[in-house]
Each structure stands twice: as C-alpha cells, then as structure tokens.
C-alpha cells in the first residue's frame, strides 16, 4: 500500500492523476494500485474511479456490488458522477447471472462444503455479488447529482419522476428536470420532453412540440427519438405525413438496433412506401426485429415465409417463427401454428398439437380459433369428443358475429347435440347467420323450409333462401337448387337449369354434384348419355376418396366403358375402395388377385379380401370363401368351414350356395 504521510491532499491528487495516466495506457493494475491508495485516504475521485474499474472488469473481477460500494463512498462525499452511477445501479438493481463461471463454481462448492464456499466468497467479494433494487435510494442519489448540474442525472431524475419510481408520479417535476438537462443538450431529456408533450403528461397534448423535441434528440443520435419521429412522419401526427422522412429516421434507428424501427422500416420496404420496394431487404429487417423478440415482427416474418411473398414459400421457417410468437402468448400466431399442425405444413401433422394451439388462441378471443376448436371437440379430432364443449366454443364465436359459428350452433340446437334441443333457438341462430349473408345458413334454412322440418313447409321461402346462397356460388346451395328444379318444386328459368346447377357445383368440387352428373351421364338421365364424361366425373369423385365412385371407376376400367380398358387401373381403384370397406370392391379385388388380372396372382391376399367381404354378408364372397376352404387355396383345406360359409350364403337365398351344399352332401354319401 502506498502511504502519503505529508500533504495528503496533494499527494492523493497526484495518485489519482497517475492512476488516470495508467488507465489511459491500459495498465489497469497500476491504475488500481494508485486509486486504491488514494481511496483509502478518503479521496472521492479515487473511490469513483475504483468503482468504474469494478463495473468494467478492468484489472479486477467485474462485480457491480463492489462498484456500488466504491460509488457509495464517493457519493457520500458529494462526488456528482458517483452519485449518478450509484443511482443507476439502485434504479434497476442487479443479480448475478447464475450461469457465470463464478456462480457455477460457487454452486458446486456449496454442495461440497458450504461453510468453506461462504468464506471464499466473502474473501473474494466482501461486498457481495448483487445490488438490490432500491427506488428510494435511486431517486435520492439521482437528485443529488442533478442538483450539482450533471445533465445525465437531471434527465434521469426527470425519468424517475415521470415514472413515479420511488416517489409519487409528478410530471411537473419531471418536466422541470428534463428542461434543465435539455438546456445542457441532453438527448435523453429532449426525448423525455417529447414524450410528455406527445402524451399530455403534465401539459396539454401538443404533437407539434413533441416532434420538435424528438427531432432535437434524434439529430443527436438518440434511437428512441429517431423511432418516435419516424412514426410521427409515418402517421402524419405533429408533422405532415412524409414516408420518405419516416423511412429516413426509422432507418437511422434501425441501424442502431431498434427492433420497432426495423419492423416498421420493413413494412415500408415491403410496400415501397418512402423507399425502394425490396422484399429481400424487408425480410432481413423483419428477421432482425424478430431475433430481438419483437412479436409482430415474428408473425409478419412467418407470414412472409408461409405466403412466399419475399421468396419461395418455406413452411418450416414459417412454423418456426409462428411458434416463437405463439410461445410468447400471441393469439394470432397460436391460431396460425395450430393451422399448420392441422395441415401438416412445416411440421408433422399432429392434431393434438393443433387442438392445443387452437384452444390457446380461442381462449384469447380469436373467433376463427374458437370455430376450429369447436369442430375438433364435435368430431373428437385431437381431443376427446365433447359436444358440450363444442357448443360452448361455437357460442362464443357466434356472439362475436362469426356466421359459421352461428350456423353450426343453430344445427346443434336443432339436433339437441351438446345443448338441450330447442328448434326455436336453433332457427334463430340460423336466421342470424342467413341475414348476415352466410350461404351455409341460407342453404340450411332453405332445406328446412323445403322439407317442413321444425317449421311449416314453405317452398317459396325455401327457393328464395337457396337462390340467395346459390348466387354466391355456394356449391351445396347449387345442389339444392338443382334438386328443386329437378323435382318440379321450382320452375326452371330455362331448359337444363337443374343440370347447370349440378355442373357448377361439381366443377367447384362438390362430391354429391359430381356423382349426380356422373350417374346421369352414364345412364343418359336428363342429359345425353356420355360414358367418357361419366368416367371423368367418377374419377374426380374417386380422387375425393368416395368409395362408391372408386368402385364404379374400377368397373369401368375393367369393361372399357368410357375409358380404355386397363386392368391395372381397375385393380388400383378396387383396392382404394376395398380399403375403405366397400364389400363389392373387396370381392372384385379378391377375384382379380385369384386370377392374376391386372396384378400378379396372390391367393393369400385374395383369401384375406374374400374374408373381408364375406364377413360383411356378401353372398358371392361367402361362396368364394367356401370354395377357397374347400380347395385349400390361399388357406389350409377345411371342408367344415367351407360348409359354414356355403350355409351363410344359402341362408340369403343364394341358389348357387345351395347347390354347393348339396354337392358336399353327395360327396360324403358317395
């Protein structure tokens, strides 16, 4: 330790100066030595500078608690900068990160020998590791420094009063301190004054004055002021709307890392407002803001990837950013993430996950999510089936004016599903949807009036409702209007109107309409016979997984009706239908497998498909299964089981089965 026996004051000044010189040449150890000696003799400047060393970790282990102790000594002696720094530490407080190397060491050491760990910690860090948050002390020391004319402290004192930290909120006092600091050119104070005037805190709202103060601070490089000024130019508040100036100031703030500025600049860049349109630059800005945790940027970035607005669609990236936003609680992101899980886009299709995210969004009032989770509960998709919960969610969405929910809720009341059956309430919900222009509700009501279900039959009203829905291109309404024309309940405005309705619905992908057109063309009912056209519509219906259409298309490929005969295609479509449980397709597929038609012969598979069809009661399959057991083809020979299957077919009145049974009896007698 350096001692100063005579003329201590001058000696400590020299020591402080020597320490400053050492610090400037990055000789932190020498600076620490000089300042420690001077601080021990009570020099406040030396104590303050020691605090800076501890705060910055220069020549010592970085520790804000030690820095605070040094600042405290200097502040108590009236050192203005030390008072300001001490105020900042107490304003925010500090707790050591448990993942620092020392924290990890201390935790491990405590587990081995807690007493020794405590002694070592006290030896290394006599002032501890944390600085407690203390708003009262923060105000006390900030004001002390401010009263000595420290501009940053004056601005900070203004902020403390504006926020009411450690005191009652006092905008007048805040404005006084901001004004004093602003007179010294403090950008933080100029920003503070801008905020007061923009929000009417302690003054009348004056956006023009707010813009003046923001501009003063912005020109000094204050990124928060640059952001605020950019947003004012963007909205035309306090200044004339000017997208170019908005882009200029937002760009300056964005370059300093302001996430909100990056986001808003990205929006301008995406649309080409005030700056050159550049989707790739917009994507970069959105990503910068999203990486800082700005939720709107995450959602917008995900949307870019989902829609491919900035490049080709990337559903994996879209899902990643929707998830990031969803996990912060953003309702829109939760809904969109649920939608991706439901579709299996960018993530594996997981209906349970879809239900989870839909429900979270629904709980925050997203009406479309409420409709989706209601449908999941009604169908038992991703969640246990629960009609009561479905009705509840439809009800919430319906109250928000969601016409789809109003219609579905109406049907639940009409059926008494999940709610007590109440046709009056059901019809009321359907009418609300219909009057709002929902074509599903209009069609549903029209059908009820046409059939007289729950209401007095009224064909005229049915026609009006169904026509309204049909005029919007709603396929089910077009089908129902076609039925009204075809069944003579409504006069056709022109010849073939029914067929045109069916065709329009079919072309829109409506399965029932496709089948109606297909069968009518196949048999020439109401329209010229056209087997090729029929085959086309059966294929469209088959591609929608309709088992009957798949069977019919397979049969047409077998016979070459409307298509070129192709047994391989026949096998393919018979298999599709058979896998959905169509017993006729199962039987026909078994026969083709037995005979090796359109597929390699496979008696074992033929036996399995024959079993499937026979179990469903198809007599022809039961006879064939009996034949397989009798011949030991694809299965071990078993006359007794063959007899059982023949009996099942014979019990249905099948004479061929009866003949086979008689043959078995004759063979036994012989």
Question: What are the key terms here?
Answer:
mainly alpha, elongated, disordered N terminus
Strand content bin: under 5%
Secondary structure class reads: mainly alpha
Instruction: Indicate the low-confidence ranges by residue numbers.
Output: 1-6
Major sheet, described briefly? none
Mean pLDDT: 93
- Based on DSSP secondary structure assignment, what is the total number of beta strands? 0
Q: Report the CATH architecture of one domain.
A: Alpha Horseshoe
CATH class identity of one domain: Mainly Alpha
Distinct helical segment count:
37
Shape: elongated
Distance between the termini: 127 Å
What does this structure look like?
The chain is mostly helical and 670 residues long. Among the domains are: 437-508, Serine Threonine Protein Phosphatase 5, Tetratricopeptide repeat, CATH 1.25.40; 510-669, Serine Threonine Protein Phosphatase 5, Tetratricopeptide repeat (Alpha Horseshoe). It has helices spanning 8-24, 28-40, 44-56, 64-76, 80-92, 101-112, 114-124, 135-147, 151-163, 171-183, 187-199, 207-219, 223-235, 243-255, 259-271, 279-291, 295-307, 315-326, 331-343, 351-363, 367-379, 387-399, 403-415, 423-435, 439-451, 459-471, 475-486, 497-507, 511-523, 531-542, 547-559, 567-579, 583-595, 603-615, 619-631, 639-650, 655-669. The protein starts with 7 loop residues before the first helix and ends with a helix.
